[in-house]
Amino acid sequence: MRIPATAALVTFSTAAILAVACGGGEPRDATSPPSTPPTLQGAYGVYVTNEVSGDLSVIDPATNTAVARLPLGKRPRGIRVAPAGPELFIALSGSPISPPGTDESKLPPPDRASDGIGIIDTKTLTLRTILRGPQDPEQTSVSRDGARLYIANEDKGTATVMEIGGGKTIAEFPVGGEPEGVSITPDGRFVYVTSELDGQVTVIDTAANMVVKQIAVGPRPRDTAFSPDSKRGYVTSENGASISVVDTATHTVVETIKLTGEMVRPMGAVVSPDGQRLYISTGRGGTVIAIDTVTNKLLGSVAVGTRPWGLALSPDGTRLYTANGPSNDVSVVDTATLTLITKIPVGQSPWGVAIVGRSR
């Protein structure tokens, strides 16, 4: 990874972290994690999962540089922030990478021992533990009380409900082929799980702990974002070049926003803190688009890099961060002007982005 000369990059030892996570033993190599994590100058930290290099990059927004790397395990992808506290929850998978069109008969067998959800303490930048049980997890969401995880098991076609404290699976639901996006409404009442193969969203009632509906949406849905008041959901359809607008009171599609442009493939989605804008990464389209949530009309777009997927907003909504997988970098966008500020080198194949405020 290339880091500007002004950045002080701290790399944590995989062996040392595994020794801590497994509860004992000295690491076999001579490198040990530093006693304290790097100090962030910004008001928040930006955390990026790197699927191929198997680690987590930490970006300081004050300097727009990556200041630390933490080894995690195989294929870290989905990343979520605990509602309260400094934890991150990261989906790890031992299944081989198999993009569309891959001859799966030629792939190596999956390493199920590497599947799990890694829990990261961002205050100490340590891998506290890995929760085992999910099979090929791709994305997860955290309940509002921080007690449960909702996990998409890509290979298995199910969603798992897991207790965080004891790592116990308390329910598992069929949700369609290749589930990916897992998003919880801001009020905590419902979880939406997208199925890429079946073009649907499965709705889980968190209080009843049961599936209450399955919604037909556009082909190959990837992610769901919600308005701050939980009344609207926005589901991206990669192969449909569209956004399904869902009324969460009835879990029905009330409008479909059609997008235009060369190779526009809607992927990640996030709504601004004031609820007035929806931001969508377009994958092969190489852009982020902004949509007015009152009119559902396009406000503008900005070229960000190669195949952006995961994205996150700063707490005040003024900065947008996109993970650009093939180019191994993260783009920083000024949301007021929809202009690219800079690109920050990270690890190999960045996938997901999460933001943690320093007050957490």
Overall description:
There is one protein chain. The strands form 7 sheets. A 5-stranded mixed beta sheet has the order 1-4-3-2-29, with no helix packed on it. Strands 5-6-7-8 form a 4-stranded antiparallel beta sheet. A 4-stranded antiparallel beta sheet has the order 9-10-11-12, with no helix packed on it. It is globular. The chain has a domain at 56-96 and 109-217 and 305-357: 7 Propeller (Methylamine Dehydrogenase, Chain H). It is built from 1 helix and 29 strands. It is mainly β and 360 residues long. The two termini are 29 Å apart. A hairpin with a 4-residue loop joins β15 (200-205) and β16. It has one helix at residues 14-21, and strands at 10-11, 44-50, 55-60, 65-71, 79-81, 87-92, 116-121, 126-131, 137-142, 148-153, 158-163, 169-174, 179-184, 190-195, 200-205, 210-216, 221-226, 232-237, 242-247, 252-258, 269-271, 277-281, 287-292, 297-303, 308-313, 319-324, 329-334, 339-345, 350-357. Helix content is 2%, strand content 48%.
